[in-house]
Structure formats: structure tokens, C-alpha cells
Amino acid sequence: MAKPFYHGGQAVIEGVMMRGKRNLAMSVRRPDGKLEVIKQPLANIYKGRLREIPLVRGVIVLIETLVLGVQALLHSAQIASAEEEKIPTAALWGIVVASMAFAVALFFITPLLATRYFDIYIASDLISNLIEGLVRIGIFIAYLKLIGLFPDIKRVFAYHGAEHKVVNAYEAGCPLELEAIKSYSTAHARCGTSFIFAVLIIAIIVFALLGRPSLWLSILSRIILLPVIAALGYEVTRFGASHAKNILAQVLLAPGLMLQAMTTREPDDSQLEAAISALNEVIEADNSEGKEN
To answer: Does residue 291 form part of some domain?
Structure first.
């Protein structure tokens, strides 16, 4: 019996990107009000056997989120603003690297430096790492609150809510029709927000096991161990989503689901239409490819 496939995606500028088994589709609202749909096959690394290996798949998902996510955001921005110039591959990779460096600096290095400043007053290695973790979570929440003040980001969060509603409806066996989808939740167990929160919690445990080495070794560990922590975070999120009726899983998922209230908003009809279009297109692309094979 074939394993069930779980569709997912992300909000982009004035649209939604959905990922299927072998393809992705993105539906973006153009300035003239019409939806433009982009479909493309996934690279082998994103759909091969490695993506089924525990822990390894978490690293692949992290790479996929960074590369495909940034590519989708930039491409959607061009469509939404009616720009025709294509972004060079080198520039895309530059943005991915810069985004990753910013995230590591803000969410991992900054909390470490802030905590080490007060380390002379902290006797316990465990308490030091716990404080660092709480500072990290505080920075993340403050960051979400700050970007959520911008009107453009509010619209992205609404498209995020639309993506979740459509996926929730599809997984419940509901027809992908506008009125039928409206009643579904804007929260979803496999959301990237829940994944990031799992990473922040697991980071506390992993770094606590290292104690309090020298500052430079601590900084290096925050960089080198990030793929390991991301892999563990993905497995925790995947377990929770696959056992959503389990009490333990519900406890694991609860903080991430609550945090999604900051990264999703109730979408309007046009935003739901974009999400429906993207999911329909990626399902059609996968089905067509499956018939050919």
C-alpha cells in the first residue's frame, strides 16, 4: 500500500505556492486582477529516496524551504508588480545565503552573546543555556510581531491562512470549492511556524548538552549543529502531524499552533481562490505525470 502524500506550500507575494509529489505550482494575482499560474517539476533531491530517510529528510526540507521558498517569493514579487526581468541564479543563491546568515545571526548568535554578557552572574551551565533559549524564543516572537505590522506582510499572512484552509479542506476530503473551504482552520500541524518553534525548543536541549564551552566554540556549534537541530525539529513536527489525535502529539503541537495565530490571518475570497488554484494545478500536474509514467 502506497504511503499517503501530504501536500504543503507557502504564502508568497499576492499568491500561494503548493508543493506536490513531483511538481510545484504557484498562483499569483497580477496587477490586472487575474491569476497567473507557474508550474515546474521538482529537482530530484526534493523527491528522491533521500527525502524518505529519517533525519536526512529534515535537512533536505530545510534546503528546499530556503531555495524554493526564496525563489517563489522573488518570482511572485515580479509577477505581482508586473516586472519581466528574470532574477539571475547567482543573485538567487546570494539572497538564500544572506537570508540564512541573517537568521543564524539574529536567532542563534545574538541570544548567545546576550546571555554570555551576564554569564558571570550565572553559575549553572543548564540555566545559562535555558536563558539563552528563552531569549531566542523572545526574539523570534518579537520579530513576528514587528513584521506583522507591515501591510504587505499582513497580506502574506492572509495568503498563509488561505494555504492552510485549502490544505485542511483537501485532507478532510472536502471539495475544493470556495464556500466549502471557508469554514476550515487557518492553523495546520505541518506549518513551517510550528517547525521553527520545534527547532527553537530542541536547540535548548542540544546546546544544554554541550555545557558552556568558549565563546568562539559556542558560536561555531550554533552554526554547525543547525542542520542537526533542523532534522530533529522536522521529525518532531512530522510525528505530531501524523498522530494529531494522540495526547502527547497534541501537547507537542500546541505551542506551534498557538504561534500560528501570529503568522496567519483570515483570507478573503480572492486569496482563497489563489490557494485553490495552486493546489488544483499541482494535483493536475502530478496526475498527468503519473499517467505518462
So the answer is: no
